[in-house]
Design goal:
- The complex is a heterodimer of chains A (421) and B (465).
- Chain A is α/β, with parallel strands linked by helices.
- Chain A has a five-stranded parallel sheet with strand order 2-1-3-6-7, with helices on both faces.
- Chain A starts with 52 loop residues before the first helix and ends in a 6-residue tail after the last strand.
- The longest helix of chain B has 38 residues.
- Chain B is 72% helix and 0% strand.
- Chain B is globular and about 65 Å long.
- With 465 residues, chain B is mostly helical.
- Classes of the chains: A alpha/beta (421), B mainly alpha (465).
- The interface between A and B is large, with 105 and 92 residues.
Chain lengths: 421, 465
């Protein structure tokens, strides 16, 4: 590459013109009226100012350096949300290096002020979900690892096979927990039921569907708050205990419906470097602990009702086994928190607890999953909404819910050989 | 990989200098750019790179066969090539829609004939690259000499336009591959303007309107007042323009930084006075494709008045179906096709006089376009019905906020702002040195990063097509 003339102004004619005129494409002899027009696009080639590649690269490097310095915190936050791997390592290294440099130059202020003005909350240095784990961890055996970052569970790391989600056994409530909850009020048009549907991207379609259905049977004021790419295993990226507090403060919900876990197929790491391999009993206990913390924040000792929905199994059998572990953890956590309830939604959307792409709804074969094999599509979310609605109707004294779609049989669960990651 | 991400920034930071370094040596540059484009495409799912390569081989082999074949067989070979392309599109994009509707219809008739139900993953950009491949073989049938394999492969896979267009023709891009681009004459200022403008349109207008107004209202129409519904309809018109034109602007800007020119894809579409005018300004590369390869292929306006109307409606129904396998897209296309046919009928009755009452015509056209967008955006026809009900009966307090209202107005006003101030700023910006230019660009990146706050930019609407 020739990068010599850094100082030459952009509009000065280059010393030697390089051939710009494209060679016209060869055409066979004329055959009809529908000939395509050859070479059209470079019509406005000389209309705007031009510059050299050297100047262009220099400008881009300056822009990149300045932007990286001023947005260092954002880069770190993005890196924390990435899957573990080289890309995350490089992003975090750049972000932390830039943040150190920005602090040295005292230029972190603009980012902090803009984020505060936009209402974006800064993640605490030590996420509360992790901060309260120290005591819990000290009592359990630890597995030393060299990195303090979460890593994907290696193949074959499972300690014992998980039960199918459909085969969940009833969990006895924790005898120590005060599970009596105050009775629910009767919503009125003046004071409607404040219903919050939240979670990761799994709740994206469910929220509007459920709120739509609920608003047909009673006075409901709905809120949907989805946080894509988040979960309980990565509080370093988004801490759901912080999110839960913000939601309670902002929306003051009476009932909270939670669906998440699609990003939790990974090991968990604590600040001390201890980690829990996904699928192991210790991983399940830690997940249960984190879920219980969030449930307590939302329920506020039974003042609000929390309905945590079971995680639909993923198409990938390994992930589906992790989903089953998540469901066991959620069921146990809900049994120990006043006002919290674990809702098993797997009946209409699975084939006896196993993954299914299609189910028969009112006699019509219907696709209920997204191509990624994790998310429910709108039809699937509608089925889940109809599964949750009777519980809301019963507990919040709404009038009778409309009949649920008739899901009779699983008519197919085939899939293409290619699938999205 | 989408443009406004850290992954793409890292990718482009490598590709841009290496591309310019290899530019004087086309034998090295073309394989490099092809490999880079496959890496770009394969970052979502590497399996689909093989699909793209298979599509390239299929069309190039049959383009050569068309060229070699005797005149009387050329149309047969072309038909074979198009059948292959349409089968690819049909399998990945329309099989589920077809199987579901056939199964429902036959079971309603009492003759259940269920087709195998498969969850077919939709390869990203399949609609765009199959349409470009089809245009190539049709052009070869119409007299174009087949280009070299590497040129065709690169034309199909060139990463700036691969995912969501603009849909370029082989005659527009391959001649640019033939000669090295001049490293002293890069339209960097225009490219920066397009990329920065695209970023701001996307994160400042489109994404905010989507999250604050359009998604909640289209998700739960029953919970919103008629004012919210009305605002969401206009808001979606602004959102989809700011979203899709932002992608096109960024694609054109990125190509410019690499030294290549793409055709313009949007030209202030909401200033159109007629539907015909709208389609000359909206997704211009698709309109041009539909006109040249479908409408003209069906006979255009050469076979009588009635067939002209039929061709218009059919072209737009198929154009709607191109966007997705769903009845709402078919209705969206039908509305546009029907509207264009009515417009043409009216034009023929009144003669080709200049548009009378331009303000009224603008109002009519804009509202018809917005009405059609409702079908385009709604998840189902049931949602359309609910929106209509709320629009007529929905009382209650509005949740519309002033910033959202201002963004809708801003998105519309931008269509009518004269171009001169932007051109003047571009000229001034070009005179600045690299340091102030770099700071201006950095400030745009800063605003973008702060708005998305590390969560990443929401996917572009046209990614799923």
């Amino acid at each position: 590459m020739v990068i010599k003339d850094l100082k030459r102004p952009y509009n000065q004619a280059p010393p030697r013109m390089v051939v710009l005129t494209p060679r016209p494409l060869e055409m066979r002899p004329h055959r009809g009226a529908d000939e395509p027009q050859a070479g059209a696009s470079a019509a406005d080639l000389n209309l705007s100012p031009t510059t050299s590649v050297a100047r262009l690269l220099l400008t881009l490097v300056i822009a990149a350096v300045v932007a990286v310095l001023f947005t260092a915190r954002g880069i770190i936050h993005s890196g924390e949300g990435m899957d573990p791997g080289p890309a995350q390592t490089v992003t975090l290294a750049i972000g932390h290096g830039a943040l150190d440099a920005a602090k040295f130059m005292h230029i972190t202020g603009p980012w902090d002020r803009v984020e505060a003005a936009l209402g974006h909350k800064t993640q605490p240095a030590l996420p509360p979900l992790l901060a309260s784990a120290a005591d819990h961890v000290s009592r359990s055996a630890v597995h030393p690892v060299s990195s303090n970052r979460a890593v994907r569970r290696p193949a074959g790391a499972r300690m014992k096979p998980a039960r199918s989600s459909r085969q969940l056994r009833p969990v006895r409530p924790d005898p120590g927990a005060a599970l009596s909850t105050p009775p629910t009020r009767i919503p009125t048009p003046a004071v409607p039921l404040r219903l919050l549907v939240t979670g990761d991207s799994l709740s994206g379609y469910l929220g509007p569907e459920l709120i739509n259905e609920a608003s047909r049977v009673g006075p409901v004021l709905g809120f949907v708050d989805t946080h894509d790419g988040t979960g309980l295993t990565r509080p370093d990226f988004v801490d759901w205990s912080v999110v839960a507090r913000q939601q309670v403060a902002a929306d003051n919900p009476d009932a909270i419906v939670v669906l998440m876990g699609g990003n939790d197929f990974q090991n968990m790491t604590l600040p001390g470097g201890q980690y829990f391999a996904a699928g192991t009993p210790r991983w399940t206990r830690e997940y249960q602990r984190r879920a219980a913390i969030c449930m307590r924040i939302w329920s506020q000792n039974g003042k609000r009702r929390v309905y945590w929905l079971s995680m639909p199994p993923a198409r990938d059998p390994t992930w589906a086994r992790d989903d089953a572990q998540i469901n066991i953890a959620l069921q146990r956590a809900a049994a120990s928190v006043p006002g919290a309830q674990f809702v098993n939604i797997l009946g209409p959307i699975t084939n006896r607890g196993q993954y299914a792409d299609f189910v028969s709804i009112n006699g019509r074969p219907t696709l209920i999953r997204e191509p990624d094999g994790v998310h429910l599509n709108i039809a699937g979310s509608d089925l889940v909404a109809h599964e949750v609605l009777p519980i809301l109707v019963h507990q919040w004294h709404l009038r009778a819910a409309p009949p649920s779609p008739r899901v009779r049989e699983i008519v197919g669960s085939g899939r293409s050989k290619m699938k999205m990651p | 990989m989408i443009f406004p991400t850290l992954e793409f920034a890292a990718f482009f930071a490598v590709v841009l200098p290496v591309s310019w370094a290899l530019m004087p040596r086309p034998r090295l540059w073309k394989p490099f750019m092809l490999a880079a484009s496959y890496v770009f495409y394969g970052s979502a799912d590497w399996h689909f790179v093989f699909l793209l390569i298979a599509c390239t081989f299929w069309n190039q082999i049959l383009a050569i066969a068309i060229d070699w074949a005797h005149e009387r067989y050329r149309s047969w070979v072309l038909g074979f090539a198009l059948a292959g392309d349409l089968s690819l599109l049909g399998w990945f994009k329309y099989y589920g829609f077809f199987a579901g509707n056939v199964a429902a219809f036959t079971s309603r008739m009492g003759l259940p004939m269920p087709l195998p139900l498969l969850q077919v993953a939709l390869p990203i950009a399949i609609s765009f690259f199959t349409f470009q491949a089809m245009s190539y073989v049709i052009d070869v049938r119409r007299g174009l000499k087949p280009v070299r394999f590497i040129d065709f492969a690169l034309y199909l896979a060139f990463f700036p336009h691969l995912i969501a267009g603009p849909i370029v023709r082989v005659t527009e891009l391959v001649p640019q591959f033939a000669a090295p681009r001049d490293p002293r004459r890069i339209e960097a200022t225009r490219a920066f303007g397009l990329i920065a403008g695209g970023l701001l349109k996307k994160v400042l207008i489109a994404d905010v309107l989507a999250s604050q107004l359009v998604d909640p209202v289209f998700g739960s129409p029953a919970l919103h007042s008629r004012i919210d519904v009305l605002a969401a309809v206009y808001g979606y018109a602004v959102q989809i323009y700011c979203d899709f034109s932002a992608y096109s602007d960024m694609a054109i800007g990125i190509a410019l930084l690499l030294g290549f020119h793409f055709p313009q894809n949007f030209n202030r579409p909401y200033t159109a006075l007629t539907l015909q005018d709208f389609w000359r300004r909206w997704h211009m590369s698709l309109s041009r494709w539909l006109r040249d390869y479908l409408y003209i292929g069906l006979g255009g306006n050469r076979k009588g008045r009635v067939k002209t109307y039929r061709n218009l409606i059919l072209t737009f129904i198929l154009g709607g179906l191109w966007h997705g396998a769903a009845w709402n897209f078919i209705l969206w296309g039908s509305l546009h096709g029907g509207g264009l046919a009515v417009e043409r009928w009216h034009q023929e009755r009144t003669g080709s006089r200049p548009v009378r009452r331009p303000r009224l015509r603008w109002l009519l056209t804009f509202n018809l376009v917005c009405l059609a967008w409702v079908f385009f955006r709604a998840d189902s026809l049931n949602t359309v019905r609910e929106l209509g009900t709320q629009l007529l009966q929905g009382g209650g307090a509005t949740s519309l906020t002033t910033p959202v209202l201002l963004l809708i107005c801003l998105g519309l006003i931008l269509q009518f702002v004269p171009r001169q101030p932007f051109s003047r700023f571009r000229e001034t910006f070009a005179r600045w040195g690299p340091v102030p230019q770099g700071f201006v660009l950095a400030s745009v990146l800063f605003v973008t990063a702060a708005l998305v706050s590390g969560q990443g930019v929401a996917p572009f609407i046209y990614y799923r097509f």
